[in-house]
Prior knowledge:
Chain A is built from 13 helices and 17 strands. Chain A has helices at residues 32-47, 67-81, 88-95, 108-125, 142-151, 177-188, 206-217, 247-272, 281-293, 431-435, 442-452, 461-481, 497-504, and strands spanning 22-27, 55-61, 98-102, 130-135, 166-169, 196-198, 230-238, 306-312, 314-316, 319-321, 339-345, 355-361, 368-375, 396-402, 406-415, 421-430, 487-490. In chain A, the strands form 3 sheets. In chain A, strands 16-15-14-13-7-12-11-8-17 form a 9-stranded mixed β-sheet, sandwiched between helices. In chain A, helix 6 packs antiparallel against helix 12 and helix 8 crosses helix 12. The two termini of chain A are 39 Å apart. Chain B is of the alpha/beta class. Chain B is 31% helix and 29% strand. In chain B, a hairpin with a 4-residue loop joins strand 12 and strand 13 (296-302). The radius of gyration of chain B is 23 Å and the shape is elongated. The relative contact order of chain B is 0.12. The A-B interface holds A 6-14, 17-21, 49, 52-54, 89-90, 93, 123, 125-128, 163, 403-404, 428-430, 432-438 and B 40-42, 44-46, 74-77, 104, 106-108, 110-113, 201-202, 204-213, 216, 219, 248-249, 251-252, 295, 297, 299, 301-302, 305-310, 312-313, 315, 329.
Amino acid sequence: xxxxxxxxxxxxxxxxxxxxxxxxxxxxxxxxxxxxxLLPAVYNLSHDNLLPADFHLxxxxxxxxxxxxxxxxxxxxxxxxxxxxxEPAVWARVAARTSYVAGGYDEPAAYxxxxxxxxxxxxxxxxxxxxxxYVSTPPSVFAPIIEQLGACGLAAxxxxxxxxxxxxxxxxxxxxxxxAQALNAAIRGVxxxxxxxxxDHYLGKETVQDLLVQRFANAIFEPLWNRxxxxxxxxxxxxxxxxxLRGGYYEQSGCLRDMLQNHTMQLLALTAMEPxxxxxPEAIRDEKVKVLNAIQPLAVGPGGDVARAQYAAGMVAGxxxxxxxxxxxxxxxSATETxxxxxxxxxxxxxxxxxxxxxxxxxxxxxxxxxxxxxxRPPGTLFAGETARFDLSANTLSFQIQPDEGLSLILNTKIPxxxxxxxxxxxxxxxxxxxxxxxxEAYERLVLDAIIGDGTLFIRxxxxxxxxxxxxxxxxxxxxxxxxxxxxxxxxxxxxxxADALLAGAQHRWRQP
Amino acid sequence: xxxxxxxxxGLEVPVGGIGRSLARMWAxxxxxxxxxxxxEDAKATQVNFVLHLGFNxxxxxxARQFATVVRFAQRYPCRVVVLCPRAADAGGPPLxxxxxxECFLGRTxxxxxxxxxxxxxxxxxxxxxxxxxxxxxxxxxxxxxYWAHRFADSGRLADYRFLLGQAKRxxxxxxxxxxxxxxxxxxxxxxxxxxxxxxxLPVRQGVGQFLAAYAxxxxxxxxxxxxxxxxxxxxAEGAVLAKWVGERLAACGWAAGGGGVEVRERxxxxxxLGVRFRYEGGAKEFGWRGDLAAGQAHFRAxxxxxxxxxxxxxxLLAPEVALSEAMxx
Lengths: 513, 329
């Protein structure tokens, strides 16, 4: 928001210090995400004095619990998962305004109880509160929660005022285009789009936000950011872990839905979009949608644009691990992919002919998420021909998103000595080395952004649909094919041979970051 | 005697060999098995930071401010130069140097930040060489921030134009500076930041957030006078708070008329800073009181809809956080 448009008593304060009186209601209050991320985020925001003086937290869940029990559970979660050792005085302030409502997600009476409780908070406080509903539940109850929030009137409280209600929705946002459209329709029946905050925590990571800064605040990159200078872009979201105890969930999801459709597409959109007209949320999201809509449909099948695979038994970090089909809760004939790789073509002026390679998988060689921009080699033969003397690499700019957030640039340089010989060197910038690692986590940033009404780092409904429009035909094709075309890769490797084949035609190779 | 310089930690080195001495210092640290920058690490430098200890600084205060900069550098690694002026009769060489380095280890192997400090003691005759010597110690393609601490005379500080003119921010503290410090015609007035104002961020934020929930007109209609109170040791902060509240109300459309903002020193216990809006007829009210020793603030408000009584936590920004606020926001 422009400084001139802010309340005079907020002018001069950074936008994140302008939170209005707020109550956050977490649906799925006893869930894993709440314990690991949301409650520590609330604690750390309070620690950093970023919550308003009149902040309230309400847990909502099916489990019967008294307020005191929920506070104890929440305190234990903060102690275990917060990036900081909790300070009793800070936690005491949060706990004093924390309560719990038990009820079914489709139980109208429970929502009435919630509405009464929130109204009573306002009465006691003597002024209005913004209501934020954080839906952190299994996706099967997303729609019932939204519908009940509409039916009991909570979605409409303070409508058309700065304190209008908001809803934050966790992924997965649909399982295909039809379900995403249905969910969007359900949401739009209750909330206006500006009240909706679809979360992808990758957007809260520093390096992801830094991508925009690097692209648009440094004059040296953007002139090169096109098909004339860039040969390819690789986006990797690799996990070292296997499916673990999430077999039941993962069997219904798979790698494409779990990682590629959301996280990697957001990374691609920020990498490939045109410069937005401003930093306003809608300006950025408009550009993201444009580039997503410019991606060509994917060809499936032999010689196509996609590869899928399951991990076989192998060795990770020096210990033997079972293959996917031997994991607990996995069907013996499972056709769920644990790895997927894609070759995308963006049909616009900037990117025509530049392949974007995306991959994600479980049980890969190491946990790493990165965007690597590979530049074309320089023309001419000045340093060509004598490969022993001239060891040249393509310039590569890579943004490492996790772990060790930062960026690096591969340059060719002369090896000191009388004879001119060359060698690639890597220049690195690490966030932790320069800024320290105890910075705000993604969820802190995103929860606060929702509180202050900044939707920049959230996904708009048409973004999710654009992404599903691309992936749904692939999923349908895979479902029809069953296990036909399913490749395997040893656990602890960088993926299957079929993924290498996606790049071979252009004589590109996957990085091993 | 150079009590300020002597009070600071570090190793005295020849002024002409600061760079070589820093390299040797890190090599010795590494050889001793202590944290030091590894070959693969760029030494982390975001900015240049010059702390200028004025003549009103004593040895204990110098050590305290140095510790503040060390804590600041843990969060924002920077190239630090500490300037220690010397009394005219101190004798000795016109320039002396000390070096100091620290590596801060974080949660991960990658989270290691190593920063370097150079302390320069100088007498007035060496001011011409000081500019060149400081430039050698800094990474001059990065922004410069300059903190002038407890200087005795604004006019004499104005002699340091190479710092005052080049610095992206010039940081003063109205609680510890000459009375004219904020009004003085500095070379770049837009760069001046008052640490007292920065320390008060939690107060400005708390009060600002609270009042922003009401329409500006609701705050100003019928407002006759604003009272700002402060304890004996919070005179500068009281002045800052009064100025800020007055400016914000003016932006809300308040024409103060005969009332305006009254500042008074309040000696009784129970609060260090306070703000009260007095309205005609008493139909509306707003009051905020901060007790910094207890770490609490209390709001009391009524603007015709309901009445609010709210107690919250309160702590002014720690010195190193106030520094970062002054520098980056």
